[in-house]
Design goal:
- The structure is a single chain.
- The chain is an alpha+beta fold and 497 residues long.
- The protein contains 10 helices and 20 strands.
- The chain folds into 3 domains: 193 residues, Distorted Sandwich (Glucose Permease (Domain IIA)); 87 residues, Immunoglobulin-like; 154 residues, no CATH class.
- The two termini are 46 Å apart.
Length: 497
């Protein structure tokens, strides 16, 4: 009971402290030279985590294990464009509390980028990491999964806001390149165990990082070109003047001499450079899989033009090579070029296990409720009485340990009831059911293959009066275009590229 009271008080304190500091007082943890390419892909808080879907974000990495569970994410994951290098910087003036070089297990070892999960003892899962304590507030900022050999700081080193402290990598328990960034309360770390990061109250001490660094990276800075003043030529004498050829009225059209393109999951930024200035900004068509949309002009600097490509303007099911096309006119030559690739929009976490084996769902009925809390208390009673557990009860124990302290007790039962009462589980279960219903071929992903099957079945149903309830996604008793719209809505809400 005392532990519950302490946990409640700590939760209230965390909520109260949350609004003390505004995000504007801190900076984005990636150096400004290419920070605009980075974004938060996994937020702080509760999430249904599927390691296989996470790993496959960057295909080719060897998988050491596979698991799916509902868990707390105590920081934010920031990533960028595959293959790019991103310098990680300190968001505060402070003192280094500890790094992976200080840990007792394998001291001074620099971990390689594994691009796989369950790496043994790599900084307690963080790989190459740094914890910096802010001098002004005492709060601690953790940077995890840094690139090999990029960590050189040690305990006691002073750092300033904006100073480079490492490079984004994929060391430790990581499926692909990203920075795991945490904000913790004033913390006294232990020097026992295999690393110096984990503390006995880990998780209860963390705060939402977006309250400090914001939710989006800074925009790409617009650099104005300096105009070079031409020297005034002295007047020429008749002897100096050269005979110039007569000018014709016909001028050559402007041509594209350079293109640059970068993108994140929602939009792309395209910059074109012409060999000379033109009167109006060129009209750019963006073509993906035969679907054509206009790019939006963002800025113009003499002969350099920047455009925004909005992926959400294309159909939800459109993906493939991205081609830019400039219409020819009186000033421009026609130009066409493939500039990138738009990944397929899909939902990867539709595994049956993530629904039926979620943490807290002891009886595997797809819901976390009072029945599961009662089963937890029953397990607790048998454990303290030293009664032998059945195989089913042993299986239930893996989902009953809500606070992950390695024990099953009344605290876990209370947390199950709290989850049931406050986390809108009925809505969450309904959402999961909708997502799984769209995975008609049961390949554990909602993607274009399901879309093709649904389309074909609806055409067959309309022509031959065939009804298959598996394809009746909106459960209205008929197969028609409303099921396609239902599928697209689910993909739009929960899909990622």
């Amino acid at each position: 009971m005392k532990k519950l009271v302490k946990l409640t008080v700590l939760t209230v304190l965390l909520f109260t402290c949350k609004n003390i500091v505004k995000a504007a007082d801190y900076i984005w943890p990636i150096d400004e030279k290419n920070a605009y390419e980075t974004y938060i892909e996994y937020n702080y808080g509760r999430r249904t985590y599927n390691s296989k879907a996470y790993d496959l974000k960057y295909p080719g990495g060897q998988l050491e294990g596979y698991y799916s569970r509902n868990e707390n994410h105590y920081g934010v994951d920031i990533t960028g464009i595959k293959g790019q290098n991103y310098d990680v910087i300190s968001v505060v003036d402070g003192t280094v509390l500890t790094t992976s070089l200080d840990q007792l297990w394998n001291p001074s070892l620099s971990y390689i980028d594994r691009n796989q999960r369950n790496a043994s003892f790599d900084g307690g899962g963080y790989g190459n990491y740094i914890v910096i304590k802010e001098d002004k507030t005492g709060k601690c900022f953790l940077y995890g999964h840094l690139k090999a050999n990029s960590v050189t700081l040690r305990n006691g080193n002073k750092v300033t806001k904006g100073q480079k402290i490492g490079v984004m990598g994929s060391s430790g328990d990581s499926g692909h390149m990203h920075l795991h960034f945490e904000v913790r309360l004033n913390q006294n770390y232990t020097t026992t165990g295999k690393n110096l990061v984990i503390t006995t109250t880990y998780g209860l001490e963390t705060l939402n990082p977006t309250d400090y660094i914001g939710t989006k990276a800074p925009e790409k800075p617009v650099v104005e070109e300096k105009k070079i003043e031409q020297p005034v030529k002295p007047e020429e004498t008749k002897e100096d003047k050269k005979i110039e050829p007569e000018k014709t009225n016909k001028e050559t059209k402007a041509q594209v001499i350079n293109t640059e393109y970068s993108s994140n999951k929602d939009y792309g930024i395209l910059t074109i450079t012409l060999d000379k200035n033109v009167t109006t900004s060129p009209s750019i068509n963006i073509i993906i899989n035969s679907e054509k949309r206009k790019a939006i002009v963002l800025s113009k600097e003499y002969n350099k033009y920047t455009y925004k490509v909005k992926y959400n303007e294309f159909d939800i099911t459109t993906f493939g090579e991205i081609t830019m096309e400039i219409d020819s006119n009186n000033e421009l030559e026609y130009f066409s070029k493939t500039i990138g690739y738009l990944n397929e929009l899909k939902i990867k976490d539709t595994y049956e296990e993530s629904y039926y084996n979620k943490l807290g769902d002891l009886n595997k009925d797809g819901k976390v409720n009072a029945v599961d809390a009662s089963l937890t208390l029953s397990l607790y009673s048998k454990i303290i009485s030293h009664e032998e557990l059945t195989e089913e009860e042993k299986d239930q124990m893996t989902r009953a340990d809500m606070d992950k302290d390695g024990r099953i007790n009344s605290i876990d039962a209370s947390l199950i009831l709290d989850y049931y009462a406050n986390k809108s589980t009925s809505w969450a279960d309904e959402k999961q059911e909708k997502i799984i219903s769209c995975d008609v071929n049961k390949d554990h992903a909602v993607n274009y293959q399901d879309y093709s099957m649904i389309n074909a079945m609806i055409r067959n149903g309309e022509q031959n009066n065939v009804y298959d309830r598996k394809f009746d996604l909106n459960k209205d008793g008929v197969l028609n275009k409303n099921d396609i719209e239902f599928y697209k809505q689910i993909l739009k809400e929960y899909g990622t590229r």
